[in-house]
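Sample intake — Cysteine--tRNA ligase
Collected from: Candidatus Agrococcus pullicola
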Amino acid sequence: MTVRIYDSRSQTVDDFSPVVPGEVSIYVCGPTVQSAPHIGHVRSALVYDVWQRWFAYRGYRTTLVRNVTDIDDKVLANATEQESWFALAYRIEREFNDAYRAVGILPPTYEPRATGSVPEMLELIGELIDRGHAYPASDGSADVYFDVRSWPEYGALTRQSVDDMEDAADADPRGKRDPRDFALWKSAKSDEPQTASWNSPWGPGRPGWHIECSAMSRKYLGDEFDIHGGGIDLRFPHHENELAQSSAAGLGFARVWAHNGAVTVNGTKMSKSLGNSIYADELIGQVRPIVVRYFLLAPHYRSVIDVRVVDGQLQQGSLAEADAAFRRIEDFLERASDTVAPESAEVPSAFAVAMDDDLATPQAVAVIHDTVRAGNTALDRDDTQAAAVAAAEVLAMLRVLGLDPSDEQWVSERGDSAKDAALATLVEALIRDRSDARAARDFARADSVRDTLADAGIALEDGKDSTTWSIA
């Protein structure tokens, strides 16, 4: 079977042809660590985690690089006197990694920080100047810009002409030849900390956003690599500018451009500036993390996922459906646990065909549920052999997607969930007993129940119509 992937540049689904046979190299634009991760960040990282897992299942040796942008205008803007920009960046980076781990996203092969590759950025900027595609600002500052009109293919990724593009707003236009020219190096500013400045041939300053990824992908994957991934919102200007500067420097750069769809809120783009971001810990707090993973990977990776929020509250609708759907899978595996499963099983061919077809997870997940239904039918008619085969196939598919409930990461989670449910059942039963005792004016019995719960660390609070409880 041949893996096929949609290339955003050609806008076609093509057979994957690696630079090095048997290997796949992927560069993914990671987070700008300015503030806490929202679910769009988690969805993007999850998409390339699934790609990595599927390529590995198909026998490829995979190298995944996901960068961290730890120096940027927004990082500097969010720093305070109490927390320097680099301390902020490190703290937020850890929050991202916690969110990734919570939903089972494997660590990338390499996770470079932009601040660790400044020499490589300076080298690349120098090459662009030597080739006539970049120039120092004309006002005597240390700014360096990419000359977009020097590269005839500028706009190839998003199929735009230069004249139709918006002005580049990433640097002061004072020394630009064209307002669309974008910054490769930014001159140090008097109101920015000295720690956010590096020496360069053009004067002290810091790198522009776009040059960071071109330099880091080259450093870790070479002049040409297989797949460049990221969110659809990065196509312009970030990825367009990466493609232009890397190509203008003579690099083969990315053979395929892959972009995952956005996560919207009530049909509107999720944005921190709009105040409608749903943060990762909010989503993970609603249901079990394994269900969050299922919820985010079940739609096709290029589709939009819309979440509903009413009066500032994340609605349970789609999450509840995902929870119910995944529990049906778990319930079947529990029912089939007494059968003697084959020692190993391949994923069904229909699942493999779907995954090979541009990672068509909706169809792949449908195969899982079809197999679950067939397995339950086999159990109903006492056909344990067929049920065992179905269970083995379901587990094989779940392992590929990182959704195997028996995996060590999820076992403790499911155990905690079961314990919580059991505790809640017992406490609610005792509360009902107490309410009955109070209704019968058996206050001694009611006080005894309260004391028993208090001894166990359970605090009760009587409201007008109900009693709530919490762990003291």
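Post-analysis note: The radius of gyration is 27 Å.
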